[in-house]
Amino acid sequence: MKKQFAILGCGRFGSAMARELCELGNEVLVVDKDEDRINDIADEVTHALILDITDDEAVSELGLGNFDVVAVTMSNDLRSAVMAVVLAKEAGCKRVIAKASDALGAKILMKVGADQVVFPERDMAKRMAHRLAAKNILDFVELSDTYEFTDMVVPERWVGKDLRKLDLRARYGVNVVAVAAENGELDISPRPDLPLERGDRLILIAPKGVVHRIDNTLG
Fold first, then answer.
1. Which of 70, 151, 193, 203 has CB atoms 3.0–4.6 Å from 88's, for a disulfide?
2. How do residues 39-77 score in pLDDT, each as one tens digit?
3. CATH of domain 123-218
4. pLDDT tens, 145-159?
5. Among candidate residues 168, 170, 159, the one with its CA nearest the CA of residue 195
6. What strands lie across the sheet with 47-50, from one edge to the other?
7. For the domain bounded by 4-118, which CATH number is listed?
8. 152 CB-side CA count, 13 A
9. Please, which residues have CB within 8 angstroms of residue 170's CB and are 6 or more apart in sequence?
């Protein structure tokens, strides 16, 4: 079943999100006061409107309460972002996501009702730093203040051993979510006696920092 998304703000982040959501088969409304931005994306989304998000009467006519998610993406204009979040929540939208450029902006957006605040630039910088600093880590996503999701190449010292022998959960508190073979096959329910092969990737959920410590220990 298609979901309905409203993207308020059509900068680089908002337009990229809108295009990807449409590619995934969803219905997407994009709103921005910049006519050129709207014209650039109009043919790639379901609806595109030129509208000032600070105009509460105009925004009230969008029916934001009917959307599954409203994304407020104009982080460089905190006043407009705050107003957009407030209007979306007043309209009855159950999930409002807002883009922030700093911690203070994030705190304000959460205070006025945002259900989730994202920092795309910061998060991408963190992911790149983790890739550059580690030998075996291919990707990293922070899930919360205490857990992270990591895509890790099987270290050389683990090749030929199985998950039961490694006992990563007991030793490190690490959960193996899946094992991806070098040929691209993904095992989302790996057996405890599954021997790991060179080139395999482990998809892990682990306490923050643990996988990096493992990676450093293994050299």
1. 70
2. 999 999 999 999 998 888 888 889 999 999 999 998 788
3. 3.30.70.1450
4. 688 888 888 888 899
5. 159
6. 47-50, 27-32, 4-8, 69-72, 96-99, 116-118
7. 3.40.50.720
8. 30
9. none
User: Residue 150 corresponds to which tokens in the numbers above?
Assistant: 């990591």
E strand intervals along 41-198? 47-50, 69-72, 96-99, 116-118, 137-142, 147-153, 175-180, 186-187
Q: What pLDDT sits at residue 76?
A: 80
Which of left, alpha, beta for 134 (phi over 0: left; psi -120 to 50: alpha)? beta
- Same fold? 4-118, 123-218: no
SS3 66: helix
Q: How far apart are CA 93 and CA 95, in angstroms?
A: 6
Cα-flanking dihedrals φ and ψ of residue 109, to 5°? -65, -40
Q: For the chain, what are the domain ranges?
A: 4-118, 123-218
| CA atoms lying within 13 Å on the CB side of residue 10 | 27
